[in-house]
């Protein structure tokens, strides 16, 4: 259903591509969380375009929504988890979006049933 991605390699690829892989990673995280939560309106391309059009401001809203959607995923599977929405937002506000990506990918990887994809 979703792809298990290496967090370390995703960070390295983001750094060596000067952020280009990070754009792809943003998109895939959003798409994977959409699949897991069942919310087909949480679309990667929409959030990517909104982030670009608003010069990055939308990424703050996205990060909060991402945390809420991951909480829904845990709730649907009857698993205890803390709501990380505010943490994701604060990390984004302080310019540490890549950590938000890594934390979200860690949560996604718990539900991945496919081999690594980069």
TrEMBL record:
Location of the DUF4234 domain: 5-70
Coiled-coil blocks: none
Transmembrane feature ranges: 7-27, 47-64, 85-104
Keywords: Membrane, Transmembrane, Transmembrane helix
Keyword Aminoacyl-tRNA synthetase: no
Keyword field contains Transmembrane: yes
Entry protein name: DUF4234 domain-containing protein
Organism: Paenibacillus amylolyticus
């Amino acid at each position: 259903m979703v792809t298990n991605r290496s967090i370390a390699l995703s960070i390295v690829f983001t750094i060596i591509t000067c952020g280009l892989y990070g754009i792809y990673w943003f998109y895939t995280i959003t798409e994977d969380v959409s699949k897991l939560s069942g919310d087909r309106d949480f679309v990667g391309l929409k959030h990517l375009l909104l982030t670009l059009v608003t010069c990055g401001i939308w990424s703050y809203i996205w990060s909060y929504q991402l945390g809420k959607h991951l909480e829904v995923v845990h709730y649907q599977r009857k698993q205890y988890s803390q709501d990380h929405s505010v943490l994701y937002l604060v990390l984004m506000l302080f310019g540490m979006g890549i950590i938000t990506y890594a934390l979200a990918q860690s949560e996604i990887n718990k539900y991945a049933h496919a081999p690594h994809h980069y």
